[in-house]
Structure formats: structure tokens, C-alpha cells
Amino acid sequence: xxxxxxxxMSKDEITAKIPSIxxxxxxxxxxxxxxxxxxxxxxxxxxxxxxxxxxxxxxIIDEALAAGDAYFVHKCMKRIRExxxxxxxxxFVSHSEAMIAELCDCAIWVQHGALLMAGDAGPVTKAYTQSxxxxxxxxxxxxxxxxxxxLRKTAETGRYTLGGDGLRITSVAVLDADGKPSGxxxxxxxxxxxxTWEGTSEDVPHYSSxxxxxxxxxxxxxxxxxxxxxxxxxxxxxxxKGNILYRIDSCDLGLGTYHxxxxxxxxxxxxxxxALAHYIEKACQFSVVRNVLHPxxxxxxxxxxxxxxxxxG
Length: 313
Description:
The chain is an alpha+beta fold.
């Protein structure tokens, strides 16, 4: 009742709409409990249900869908669409590019109190998304640079977590299609992992390996060069510096941030810790951005083609 009065409705209007508000919020079983006992999601349900019950010419929605389960958010989105189609002007404030692109005709991008862009919702949301990934790339390149600097200091002092007494890794980087260091890779684009080494080895074959971990899961994928007889040398001593480049033609990882761990190893069957020449945990990080707007966090997202076949009667 208080919420309806604050929204400008009369007591009679509020009373008439109470049943529909309670039904939309799905809080019939606890509607007589004190509001302060509600969880944040329950408060959001009742507040939103009250707000959209107003027959307004202009409706302002400010991050109202931040709480609540997926089903309730879906129901709210359906109701907002109905309000938009009724002719009501809706001002929708959100950080969700997908929701803005779906609901809005026009968009205004405000950052730190300044107007950065205004226009059709599609181009504005895409520009905002690009700015997010630009900042992400900057942070990832900085993190990789910091890790590389740490590796260089480690190489100079001779202190290694695992191995590094003779042959050692000095840097690990992700390169884009043009061979330039990159902190963000678009799903489906090629990428190259460059492992730079220096030092001296024994007169036995050596190889390198890498592992890619996500922020949530260890060992998403990797490459063990010994399995493919991809040795850096054929048994002759390694001495000096060099790069090992591993090209992945299509980065089919899902949206997220990933870490690359790398190693240099001696040929040995079966493999044991003695085979390890040098190992660096999380020497490099990069992010993968999807080619579509919705932020679904798949682990693996390959290219998919489709065909529509007519049903035969």
C-alpha cells in the first residue's frame, strides 16, 4: 500500500490491484510477514510487482532485475515488453547490454557522469561491449607483462619454483593473427601461444608443453609435445635462446578469463618429475569474448552450422 501511494495511486486503486500484485510476486504464503524479514530477492519481487502495477505514461526502471531467480526475471521481462508495446515510455537503466538491446529502441551511454554516446540501442550497446573488452585486454596484457617481468627476475636470480637450473622459460604470450601480443581473443579466431626459452640443456631431446586453465576449472585443455614427437632438438645440446610457437586455428573456448601454464621437459618414459627442466604456473592470461551479445559462459563453444529440413507428411 505504501509503495503504491509513493507511486501516486489512490487508496482505491491500490486496494483493487493488491490481489494482482501479490499474484505476480508469488509471495502469497508470506505476504503477511514483516517486510524486513524478506530476503533481498523477495523484496525485489514485491517492489517490482508494485511498481509495474502503476498505469503510468513514463516508467523508470533502475536495475530492478538484478535480483530474483531466472524464472522471475523472465516473467518481469515479459511484463516490461507488454508495457513498452502499450505505448508507455520506459526509461530502463541497466548494465546488461543484452537486456537493453532487447527492450530499448534508443540508448544513452553514461560513464562517470558524462554522456559518451546516444543513438540506436544496437550500435550503442555494441560500443559499450567493445569498451569493456578493451579495458579487459588492457588488464590482461598488464598482468601478462607483470608475470613476464617476474619470470625475467626469476631467470636473473636463478631461483625457480620447479627446475630452471639450465634451461628455462623467460616469457609466455598469446599472439593474435598478426603476431601481436593480445589479451582478448574472439571466439573462433586463431591464436598462437609463444613460449620463449633460454639457457643450456643436456644432450637429450627436449620438448615444451602448455596447459590452459579457466578461473573456475583447472586443465581445460593443453598440449604435451612429447605425445607427438615434437621435440625442440633431436638430442643435440640446446644453447642460447629461442621461441616455440603453438598455433590454434580456432579458439573454441567459451566466454571468460584463462591462464596458461608452460613447461620445458626432457624426453623420458615414463614421465616423472626428473623430466621437468622448468615449469611456470599461470605465466600468461587472456580472455575470450563471444561473437554474440548474450553472456553465456560455456566452457567449450565450437562453430556450429545448421540446416532446416521440412517434415515429410
